[in-house]
Amino acid sequence: MNRSRPDDHSSDLAAPEQTTAPRGADSTGSPSPPRGPRGQDEPRLRLMEDDGGDTFRSIHRGAMAFAEGCYAGIRNPNSHEVNLLELPEHEALEQLAAFSVLARWVDKAEVAQPS
Fold first, then answer.
1. Is pTM, for the whole model, over 0.70?
2. Sequence spans of domains, the chain
3. Per-residue pLDDT averaged across 84-104, rounded?
4. Burial 9-43, CB ≥16 within 10 A → b, else e
5. Which 3-state string (H, E, C) describes 19-79?
């Protein structure tokens, strides 16, 4: 059985060439201070308190890489490709579990606002 895109305008929401997490997600989880490259305010998600240590940087770097992988490897192909074969149930559940982990991390995170 093939999956096909519904004939609504959902394809207008994201460009087919999008291969990463949504715009802004690339810096939201960054361990850097809540300031953008040009000094503009950019809030950050904090999965733990910034103690300046390697663990803080590692956790945030890993979460950002995981989020990008979920979007590039799971969400985008399923949203942008027509006629993909339907996944076996266990693979679909694995993909759902990956996004569940990501959602739990985001839900537990605190937002660090620029000072």
1. no
2. 23-112
3. 94
4. eeeeeeeeebeebeeeeebbbbbeebeeeeeeebe
5. CCCCCCHHHHCCCCCCECCCCCECCEEECCCCCCCHHHHHHHHHHHHHHHHHHHHHHHHHH
